[in-house]
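Sequence in, structure out.
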Amino acid sequence: MSKEDRLDPEFYLSLASKEENKSRGKLKIFLGMSAGVGKTYAMLEAAREYMERGGDVAIGIVYTHGRPETAALLEGIPTIPRKKISYKDAIFEEMDLDAVLERRPKLILIDELAHTNIVGSRHNKRWQDVLEVIDAGIDVYTTLNVQHLESRKEVVEEMTGIQIQETVPDSILENASEIKLVDIPPSELLKRLEEGKVYIGDQSKIAVQNFFTEDHLTILRELLLKTASERVGHDLKTMIPISDRERSEEVADRLIVAIDHTKQAEHLIRTSHNLAYNLNIPWVVVYIDDEKVLSKEEDQRLEKSFALARELGAEVLTTVDSSYKDGILRIARLKQCRHIVIGNSKKTFFQKIFFRESLAQYLLRNIPHLHLHILRKESLEKPEKWSLFSFSALKDWGGYWKVLSGFLFFVVLGSISEPFIGYQSVSILFLVGIFALSLYAKKEMVFLTTVATLLVLDFFFIPPVGKLGISDGKDKIFFIAYSIVTFCLAFVTVALRNRERFLKAQEDESQILYDIVKQISGAPSQSAMFRSVTGSVGKYLQGECGIALRQSAEDLAAVSKNPLWNNENEKSVAVWVMKNGKAAGWSTNTLSSVPVLFIPLKGFKEVIGALSFRPATQQPLSLKKMNFLSTVAHELAAHLERYIYEEKERKSYYLEQAENFQQTIINSIGQEFSKPLELLMEATKTLETTVEMNTPEVREHVKKQLTDSTELLHRLTKNFMDMALLSSGLLQIQIKLNDITHLIQTTREKIEKHLQSHRLVVNIEENIPSIPFDYLLMENALTNLLYNAITYSSEGKTIEISAKLQGLYLELSVIDEGEGIPSEEITHVFKKFYRLPGTKPAGTGLGLSIVKAIVDIHKGKIRVHSRPEGGTEFCLIIPVTLS
């Protein structure tokens, strides 16, 4: 296969993306130029054809507007009852979204996609209802007029002069599986309007006088056809592999549009969306924060622009840079963009003097092969009025009087000192005062004070005194230079102070975020982490923050101190957020009537909970603070998902260990109990034979078998019981002063029969005082050590018991002459049911575990080592005094 014939990898990626979308429902939009063209009628006809083919169809909501031919098509199609919502003492009907999701038809009919839901509905807009239905795997038929597309709104308003109140994001249309164009000539639509087939009664006359004019309809029809042709062109591009497309090296894979807080931003965003859609490339909306303090109106306008960009499918970026040009250039290089969209505005007189190179020239000079799109819009082209300051700042009368008092102080001080130091030195004194003022006052006050200072200096100090104006040439040069220096010093100081405040705010936010991330990762417990994180977030954002984790597919449980919800309605929103993985509640377009914001804690695989924020005031959160909350939610989700995964792994490991442990117990019991049981069975068979039992030797042998097997069973059972008691912590401990010699002697006597085949040596240091320990437990430990030495050393070998004082500890040792323990196995010998590899099966494997547990109870230690001359030494180190 040649390189030219090989399909582009992105083609396969697009196919994979389509496979992923198969689980979602399909959206078919019946698109028209206005009301009355027959969109609803065409939708119902298509639905009836679908029913005739055996499809499951239901009506979510359809409006007939009193048209009998449309109402006739509703007959026979199942209708889901509408939901009644009370608002302002009136009852409104909306589509019952929950009933639709519960009914789950294969196809649902939802009319008027651009409709705004009544307050109290789950979503603010009907198109959001449609998206949720599609995500649930249900196909949707819906209707839409072209003027309600967000990117077409501005064009329609300009051409028709009619304000469009309801809009739908273009991404809805772009992601639709099918678009059905419903089109009739404007003249035919006007004829239908006159006949009363569109609106009833006087509504038709009102419509003709306002919206339904032939010019307006012609414009809308052209816009409809243009939208359809763009969709066809876009679909053709996506169907052709990239390697087969005609493309040059300059074609970029991303588009940037730079916006500010002006009214032009929305126009730039809408136009850039259309450009990016036609180029079939992703696009980014960039806002450069140049540290300018925005008014409340400007801030709201900026937030509105961000919301519009997100609705149209853009990636929204904000970055801080003192230079607007440098900020755009940096983002363009970072994103590797060669398509940039900027607005064109007229320069002010001052901009023409001080900024000769335009933004367009700067970008073209610094970015090679740049496609620069400059949008010009006459109605928004007027430059902002140049103003050095805002007079609204002077409403701060407290600050004004402080400045005035400082100003008068320096004037009086200058007047007193002028006869001694001269007016030149007084000017330096004034300069110091302006500098001090610049450190805390607003720039408006600094400007006024600087002007007042220059006037006072001229009128009262520079000759001729008592007049405005300077006669001496040297004084004129001095005054001009002094004025320039004064203004520069004042405003540079104010700028640096503002810069410092801005950086301090940025640093504070970064520090808060760092502290929260540190709390998430370094908290001693989950509850401490939840408490510290919610406290930090609530304090920073001025509200209450809470966390809830998934308990089941349908329920959440609060894990933080602050309540996430005050009633069942708020809790249902939190559950919805968990199930759908989308933010909802306050300041969102979903269930916005709830006074709490819920953000999903989305892990890599699933939503594991929800983060809530209840604001102290109803002032909307800025984009920066929303991003802050999203970042905290992301960090929390990542940590919790990792914690949950580790818990699952730990439980899985423990379960596996428990299963292995259980199997080991079964194997051990089977092996160890089989020997004494075989002896018992053999003895029983012998007892059944009367002839053999008459022989004394046989009777003695049977007796020995019964005794040995019974003792072995008793010892095995006792080890199991002792280990169970030691592990449970229910064992009664009785530590008293005991004689170590008596302990060794008693233990020796109990197992003397088993020591007959070995040589036992006992070495006890003289003058060992009574030692505090539990006699029965210590006897058990010494017995298990001796049985271990007997088992793993050959007959005739020596076993030594020694006891001596070593400082504040008693060292009780058992030494054998067996094969010893390999150094790498010493750390394992105290594990339950552990046996050295390659050794003969003997005992339960619990003896040394019991010894270790008994030593731990006595706050002691146990030391094991293999001796160079052969054999193993087990040394119990018991404190002489117990704390």
